[in-house]
Design goal:
By secondary structure, the chain is an alpha+beta fold. It has one domain (about 10-60). The chain is built from 2 helices and 2 strands; from the N terminus they run H-H-E-E. Strands 1-2 form a two-stranded antiparallel sheet. Strand 1 and strand 2 form a beta hairpin. Helix 1 crosses helix 2. The chain starts with 7 loop residues before the first helix and ends in a 6-residue tail after the last strand.
Length: about 60
């Protein structure tokens, strides 16, 4: 990768997206926000990991 001590997150980015991820890690491209209708995601989702189902609830954080 060209990094002396990459973090777990950097290794994962590179593993999932070798070409684009490397450019991102080098600072050649910037992170882009994910467009979400209404500006936020909220609801319950079923996520399956290695055949095991998990219920995930996503709620916005209240700003104080």
């Amino acid at each position: 990768m060209g990094f002396e001590n990459p973090s777990d997150e950097e290794v994962l980015i590179y593993a999932l997206f070798p070409q684009t991820g490397l450019k991102f890690l080098k600072g050649e491209i910037e992170e882009e926000p994910f467009p979400v209708p209404g500006g936020r995601i909220e609801g319950a989702f079923e996520v399956v990991v290695e055949g095991e189902k998990f219920k995930v609830e996503v709620k916005p954080i209240s700003e104080e």
